[in-house]
Design brief:
By secondary structure, this protein is α+β, with helices and mostly antiparallel strands. The chain has a domain at 24-64 and 100-176: NADH Oxidase, CATH 3.40.109.10. It has seven helices and five strands, in the order αβαβααβαβααβ. The chain has helices at residues 11-19, 36-45, 68-81, 86-94, 118-138, 149-152, 154-160; strands at residues 29-30, 58-63, 101-108, 142-146, 165-176. Strands 1, 2, 3, 4 and 5 form a five-stranded antiparallel beta sheet that branches. The protein starts with 10 loop residues before the first helix and ends in a 25-residue tail after the last strand.
């Protein structure tokens, strides 16, 4: 049974599940990766992110296992273009095989919408990214966001993006190894919620 908010009969259990999500390092991710239907559902849920004027600034690109070698060559070219030595190029190539599942996060930030400044569009993209991570978590999969040189490389960007888009980051995902060390809980020392007090006039 759903309430007026669309939340099920046990919202506390759902909140506890959401609170348990942590980024999972690559060494703690094992096959299987999320299947296409899980990724599709997670991507569709991101449409619920706050999005002033419905710009949809973010999309996700799945890199299949058969495409990893081609991605590795792109990473190697990008590394060579920056002057990295042979071992650096090899390491860059191997990074394409990180994690059982891999998604590229592609963002389009528009500067022709005066009512929606770039920072609002980035907030929307970030909210969509978090929804996708939580959706994967709730469906039983671990994930982590990665950046790095490859995400900033023009060689790699052109392979994933159309004009006006940028490659924001990568998401690695898979099944969390139950034998892996539990991720550290968040640091709760910082005050996250305060009441505003207007300055005396």
């Amino acid at each position: 049974m759903l309430g007026a908010s669309g939340v099920g009969a046990d919202p506390l259990a759902l909140l506890q599940a959401l609170a348990a999500r942590r980024s999972v390092d690559a060494h703690a991710l094992r096959p299987p990766a999320p299947p296409p239907e899980v990724l599709q559902r997670a991507a569709e849920l991101t449409l619920g992110a706050p999005d002033h004027q419905g710009l949809r600034p973010v999309r996700f690109v799945h890199v299949g296992s058969e495409e990893r070698a081609a991605l590795g060559e792109l990473f190697a070219r990008a590394a060579a273009a920056t002057g990295r030595d042979a071992s650096g190029v090899i390491n860059a190539r191997e990074r394409a095989f990180t994690g059982p599942g891999l998604l590229a996060v592609v963002v389009r930030i528009r500067d022709d919408v005066p009512d929606v400044p770039p920072y609002e569009q980035w907030l929307s993209a970030g909210a969509a990214l978090m929804i996708l991570l939580q959706a994967l978590h709730l469906q039983g999969y671990g994930a982590k966001v990665l950046g790095g040189r490859a995400a900033r490389s023009e060689v790699v960007r052109r392979a994933f993006c159309t004009e006006g888009e940028q490659l924001a980051c990568w998401i690695i995902t898979g099944t969390r190894d139950p034998a892996a060390e539990e991720p550290k809980p968040p640091d709760m020392r910082r005050e996250l919620l305060t009441d505003w007090s207007p300055a005396p006039s």
